UniProtKB/TrEMBL annotation:
Periplasmic binding protein domain segment(s): 44-332
Organism: Brachybacterium tyrofermentans
Protein name: Multiple monosaccharide ABC transporter substrate-binding protein
SUPFAM superfamilies: Periplasmic binding protein-like I
InterPro entries assigned: Bact_Solute-Bind_Prot2 (IPR050555), ChvE-like (IPR049784), Peripla_BP_I (IPR028082), SBP_2_dom (IPR025997), TAT_signal (IPR006311)
NCBIfam families referenced in this protein's UniProt entry, alphabetically: ChvE
Top-rank taxon: Bacteria
Main location: other
Stretch forming the signal peptide: 1-24
Keywords: Signal
Compartments it resides in: Cell envelope
Lineage: Bacteria, Bacillati, Actinomycetota, Actinomycetes, Micrococcales
The UniProt record lists the keyword Signal: yes
A Pfam family the protein falls into: Peripla_BP_4
Length: 383
């Protein structure tokens, strides 16, 4: 498990991590950035995990448009959550001689041979939102503050349970507890899942320790709570099993920590099918989320899902493009974090973007007034 508190390395390691080794020197292949070339002569290879998640489609569209607007060629491939497919796609990009690789991995530890081949061909690599692990040939990382995502999910859960007030401070009229909650985590092969989990658990732990919150199933380890490939159906089945096994004798479930909106919707389906709700006001347990998918924003507007975390993929794409552009000019991309993201071999210099908690009280301002969704899309729950 990646723990934010053990990411600190010595000054020597940190300083070494700041260098972009793949950006300089002669490579073994024909790829890599020609810093004197015009954008129209440079191709950015973009490897994306899947089109089944709404957010990855938005990421891909934003990246492609932004790069093309700047004159770059783009080779973008989606692997549909199949690791061998993504490996083959990146191999093809390296062999074709792209100038830089932008990779949103399916499994961050599965691409070592591809990263080695990119380094041999003098092709810099930017990890996009998901950290590439166990390999030194990762030059930069653009992402959100994923530990803080977990903190905010935990705070959103406690706000929904009445333990925190609107300023996210202990509520004066907070319920005494114990309140039963269940915990869900993401896919173990995604480094972000560990950061979400750690941020949430660090925040919830005092409430577990004093008995205010209780995990009735006792499934409190990430391995027990994990959801392979972030699949909605897997989350729904696990929630159904938890209800059948631990909540069939009159026990009351107060809330569920869910790390992503598709999982949240699966969990909500299971809860409603068991006769709970259908809304929070009518007894549905509080369920958190992430990614501000339109179907979940509608659920929040309707008082069904309690919260989500908005990670604006427009700003993430913009930052990734700026980082790629800097590398293609022979410059070092701007980093605002050089200590946190240890990939197991090196600390990868990173740029972290802010996040926003979305609730029924503020979804209009954050999601609609900002132009991200239209009122009609929220009303229908569809793009």
């Amino acid at each position: 498990m990646y723990n934010r508190r053990i990411f600190m390395l010595g000054a020597t390691a940190t300083a070494a991590a700041l260098g972009l080794a793949a950006c300089g020197g002669e490579g073994a292949g024909s790829g890599g950035p020609d810093t004197d070339a015009a954008p129209s002569e440079q191709t950015v290879g973009v490897a994306m995990p899947t089109q089944t998640y709404e957010r990855w489609v938005a990421d891909g569209n934003n990246i492609k448009k932004g790069l093309e607007d700047k004159g770059f060629k783009v080779d973008m491939q989606y692997a549909e959550d199949d690791i061998p497919t993504q490996q083959q796609q990146i191999d093809q990009m390296v062999n074709s001689g792209v100038s830089v690789l932008l990779i949103a991995s399916i499994d961050g530890a599965s691409l070592s041979s591809q990263l080695d081949a990119a380094a041999a061909a003098n092709i810099p690599v930017i990890a996009y939102d998901r950290l590439l692990t166990d390999n030194e040939n990762v030059d930069f990382y653009v992402t959100f503050d994923n530990y803080k995502v977990g903190v905010n999910q935990a705070n959103a859960l406690m706000f929904g349970l009445g333990l925190l007030d609107e300023e996210f401070k202990p509520a004066g009229d907070a319920p005494k507890g114990p309140l039963n909650v269940e915990l869900f985590a993401g896919s173990l092969d995604d480094n972000n899942a560990h950061l979400f989990w750690q941020g949430a658990i660090d925040t919830l732990q005092p409430y577990f320790d004093d008995g205010t919150l209780v995990v009735l199933s006792k499934q409190i380890d990430i391995e027990q709570a994990a959801t392979q490939r972030w699949e909605q159906e897997t989350a729904q089945k696990r929630m159904e099993n938890l209800l059948t096994t631990h909540y069939n004798g009159g026990e009351e479930l107060a809330g569920v920590l869910s790390p992503a909106d598709p999982l949240s919707r699966g969990i909500i389906n299971a809860l409603q099918n068991a006769g709970l709700g259908p809304t929070i006001e009518e007894g549905l347990p509080v369920v958190t989320g992430q990614d501000a998918e339109i179907a979940s924003i509608k659920l929040i507007a309707d008082g069904v899902q309690s919260s989500t975390i908005f990670k604006d993929t427009r700003t993430l794409a913009d930052q990734a493009i700026l980082s790629a552009e800097s590398i293609l000019k022979g410059e070092e991309p701007e980093a605002n974090d050089t200590e946190t993201y240890d990939n197991g071999v090196k600390v990868v210099p990173s740029y972290l973007l802010p996040i926003q908690m979305v609730l029924e009280s503020n979804y209009q301002e954050i999601m609609v007034d900002s132009g991200y969704y239209t009122p009609e899309q929220v009303e229908s729950g569809q793009l």
